[in-house]
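Q: We require from you a single protein entry containing the residue sequence and its fold in token form, and nothing else.
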Amino acid sequence: MPKDRDDELNRHGGPTPEFTLEEILAEYRDRRESGLDDDTIPLPVIPQKDLPPEHRAGRRKGTGNNVVRFPGKKGRPAPPPEEEPEEDGEEETVTRFPGTPPKSARPDEPEEEPPVAGDEDDAGDGDVPEDSVEPDDGDETPPEAESPKAFFSARLDALRRKADDYADHMFEEEGIEDDEEVRRAEKYLPGVDREEERPPFRIRPPRRVIPPAPDIPPAELFKRYGRGLKFLRMRTTMVLLLSLPLIYLTLAPFFRMPLPGMLSSSYELQVYTLAGMLGGAMLLGIDVLLRGLFQLLRLQMGMDTLVSFSCIATMADALTMIALGGREGELPYCAVSALALGLTMWGTVLKRQGQRSACRTAASAHEPYLVTLDSGKWNGREAYTKWSGDPAGFGSQIQGADGAQRIFRVTAPLIFIASFLFSLLSSLGRQRPELLLWCLSATLTAGASFSAALCFGMPWNSLCRRLSGVGAAIAGWDGVAGGNGAGILLTDTDLFPPGSVALNGIKIFGNFSVEKVVAVTATLIRDSGSGLDKIFHDLLRSQGAIYRRCSAFERCEGGLAADIRGEQILVGSAAFMHLMEVALPQGLNVKNAVFCAIDGELAGLFALNYNLHGAVRPALTALIRNKIGPVLCTRDFNLIPAMLRQRFKLPVEKMEFPEMVRRTELSDPDQEHSDTLSAVLCREGLGPFSEAVVGGRRLRQAVRGSAALASVGSAIGVLLAFYLTFVQSYSSLSPANLLIFMVMWLVPTLLISGWVNRY
């Protein structure tokens, strides 16, 4: 090497010795024999720009790198040399002896086996550019160049590292159950339930909103529903009584029963007699007929429309059938239409009676309790909540359409259109225009279900009378429209109304005065919103004490804590005192009591006597049977599941008991509620609350089931009537057969309506 080049290299790292191939092989052989194969001896680092042109990376002819391979090593073919521009950066080239690990390798890593002849060399790992060093087995290769063996080996190494990490942390909490604090918490703190993360509910598209009725006060609605109710009941009774002779005249030929006087010998007299009696029934029920016609004009068709057109078509058929030649001695469907009209009027009477009873109950209390179905209250589900307020919206909801009417608004138009189309096909389509009125009468009468108005009227009236006896009123169909899988929030006064808890005695400890102990205890009880507030308020007045001003108020599981005039006040159960390390007297055996401690010293004890109302246990049983989960939102620290199960044998395993923070939120009297009322309660306790919630759910199930069956029965009746009129089978579609068919579809509604009150 020229001298000037040596001087230049000495300025950048000292003289660089030159090695021949024989010297390198000799050094390598000596190191293998001495066992120093894995030690790294880096050569002096020389920047690329200071190397001779023929030794720079990417410019050396033949190999394109500065790695020397040893005999017996089969290296991968080097990529073709690429021209790399010279840069003034800090790029360095490091030359390692074969078989030595990279310089960056950690000294604690396990040693690798020496390379075997025929394998690739591990040299070339350093800070050399990628295009200047030939990749080997120890270097990272792109994912597309990895072999399957290397890929699975890397995955196994990752799994092994995860397993090692898990094993390192597996026993971190070992022995924590032996900790004294943990044992005390498990012994004295009640178990609570936590909410589960649920996916968000599917948002339904908005439906067409019908303008609500005006919100009239319940007292005025009570008077309005009472007007004309007796006259309507009398007219309904007359229509039903008038239907009896019609039914007899219709069934007499079928059962071979005798007919009075000239009716037995004159077919025309029988037809006109039936028509005259149907006309009288239509006059008595003119309000139902007009309501059905008005529904058609307002495009809110219901079963009343089918009943109205059934009566009109049957009357027209009865008056014209003699002139059109008769139908082989068959009678018109006057009895079926008259009975449908009478049952529709009866359903209207029952509905108005139920509305009147509900309005009377809602108007009986000056400040009633309101029940709403609030969404997302507990565990992502809806929950029934009871709170005090003004029953705004009750009058509007009670006047709204019921569940059966809402279902019939969908099914009745279809049945009505089908009846007209089928009648046209059976008469004009078969070139028999004289049978058009008969076909209309048959299909419309078969579609006018007997249970149309009874689907809601019967269960609604019976339920309202039952709820009126316990001081509850359902706010119309809107109040029972939801609630699938809902819970019910129960507070202190639901389980133990005022008067159910009594003070059984007081004991003062230490040098504390009775007035001070009563005052501080009553203050914390008042600020907690507990159901014991009335008891301690009366005790405070009897002792001549006053409430104190407290700070740093805090609710805990099993008790309360606050600062009053620089003293720490603790109020809670015996378990809470043990948890706070307050010493209790030996042999103290008081199950239900309120303890008070001042600055860590026991100051007073207030023994309480809890008396469970007789209606609580059956009310909880009814809620659980109807899949309405009770959620205990109590603020009284004595009302925990263990106490309710041990003393009162309540099914607490089927109830939810949230932690203290959630119980406080769920029982907050200022929380937001739904705008739709479910019920109005005029009495305290769980009895009226449970009666209204369970009754509303059963009413919803009964009405929907009855309306669905009525719609199915009407559809089947129209299809059968179409087939029999199409084939002109007068005997099969006789009034007697149609009457029996309609009565059979009335039976399920009567059975389902009686099921509503059986809870």
Residues 8-16, 36-46, 54-145 have pLDDT under 50 and may be disordered. The longest strand covers residues 369-378. Residues 686-726 form the longest helix (41 residues).
